[in-house]
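anyone seen this seq b4? input:
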Amino acid sequence: MEVNLYIEKYKNINLNFFKWRYELNFLYKLILSLSFACFTGLLAQFRFYIPGTPVPVTGQVFGVILAGVMMGTWGGISQLMYVGIGAAGVPWFAGFNYGFGYIFGPTGGYLVGFILAAFFIGFIVDRYLKSRKFLSMILLMFFSIFVLIYLPGLIYLYIFTGFTLSVTELLTMCVLPFLAADFFKAIVAAGIATSITPKVSYANEIDI
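predicted toks r here
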């Protein structure tokens, strides 16, 4: 009984947070978005390189996903702020990098993907109750990571290298080394997102 009581309290806290976040005015949403931009910048410093690829493995993806889940479509704004403020000179890209030079470097396409993924996750989670179930979350994370983040990253890298890489070389360099790590990230992110999102309406969902 006591365990059930704690579970209900936890569910109420989650529901109250998401209702509060959904009903915030513009200024407070902007401030909260900035906090998630900072969180993404912090996670970006957890990185390591795999030999043979210019793209590092970082913790940024978790920041992107959590921004979308916790902030709805404003999660995309948080990632837009992350990219824009980093371009303006705040050293919070991976490896404490900053500036337009980094954005137009080999990993610039992934930054665009972060924005797209956060917007998409936030939109789906806020609009569909069914999306907050574990299986739906896994599918959402897979699509966001392997399509919305990977695809812009690969397209831009292909352009950046002067169209000199073949599709096989691109996949070998920038997909295959990361599949296992990103598959694991997607599963973990889906578990976290499922556990923190309310399973009842807070945002006029269309599938109530």
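The two ends are 29 Å apart (CA to CA). The chain has a mean pLDDT of 92. kinda curious what u guys think
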